[in-house]
Amino acid sequence: MAKDHKRVWLTFGSRNLVEKPILWQMARHYPDVSFDIRQASVTAEIGIMAVLFEGEAEDVAAALNFLKSHGLTVEPIEKNMIES
After folding, report:
1. Which residue from 20, 24, 26, 77 has the highest number of Cβ atoms inside 10 Å of its Cβ?
2. Confidence (pLDDT) at 80
């Protein structure tokens, strides 16, 4: 398998999603995927995070699909946005 990294925006679009430990649940299901929160803005009603995920390509894809299946919006970040 090949190593991969993905930079994504995670949007927690409701109070219900903000209050759930979804990243923790993802980490428990996919322990070989590391994540680094690069930027975050979280209120009681909405959360937006810039996160870097790293691991085997198949595992990273599965972890991101796990987050999507739990209601998060997952959108890619253009490389120059995170590096600038």
Report:
1. 26
2. 53
